[in-house]
Amino acid sequence: MTVNTSSDPSSALPETKSPTAPPRVPPPFNLSFPSSLSPWNKSVRQWLTDNDKHFSGLAVGALVFNPSGRILLVQRAAHDSMPNMWETPGGAADETDATLLEAAARELWEETGLVATRLRRSVTEGEGRAPGSLFTNRYGTRFYCRFSFEVDVEGWEEVRVDPEEHQDYLWVTEEEVRAGKVGERSFTITNRQMQALILEGFRLRRVEGGETAGDGGA
């Protein structure tokens, strides 16, 4: 698997929660997905074993588009690493996740309150690139691999961010991503990997006929 190496502590490491906050239990997910995503329909441990990889962990990300073709970005909390910067929802795949696809649905729900219904495709960092973004912790001592997927959701307009991790959200166009600006409001993507991933998500939708997140097509 060909991947890029870039220091990015933002997504793969579990965040520290307040000790007084009760654990949030995700709803049961009834996910559908094409056969092309079968390689990720397995647990973290099974994926690492099957692919003979020795990463410190795996992470997942969700690209969610609304019916008008805008992508959902969330702003990292001011008290977190990469404070106030913007990214797609995602985080560490846990040992308790039945599959990496369910991990993507869980992380999306924990960070935005949105319930995934369908995973459409894997999204890479650009045309012709293999799935997976390789990055390290901030010290360069642990390596992680993140897989990202385009995801359909229920009630896309009902975004609810978790203040422990994110403080705001935006629905933005491809042009706004490239400009780093929505109207008079500027925003900064976490890193070049994330920027490339988002732009590839837009490209795939454009190439494949401008599907919308809620069209329910095959």
Keywords:
three-stranded antiparallel β-sheet; six-stranded mixed β-sheet; 218 residues; disordered N terminus; disordered C terminus; Nucleoside Triphosphate Pyrophosphohydrolase; alpha+beta; single chain
- The number of helical segments is 4
Mean pLDDT: 87
Strand content: 25-35%
Q: Note the main sheet.
A: 6 strands, mixed
Verbal overview:
It contains four helices and eleven strands; from the N terminus they run βαββββαββββαββα. The longest helix has 16 residues, at 192-207. The chain has a single domain (31-207), classed as Alpha-Beta Complex (Nucleoside Triphosphate Pyrophosphohydrolase), CATH 3.90.79. The chain starts with a strand and ends in an 11-residue tail after the last helix. It has 218 residues and is α+β, with helices and mostly antiparallel strands. A hairpin with a 6-residue loop joins β7 (133-136) and β8 (143-154). Strands 1, 2, 5, 6, 7 and 8 form a six-stranded mixed beta sheet that branches. Residues 1-20 and 212-218 have low confidence and may be disordered.
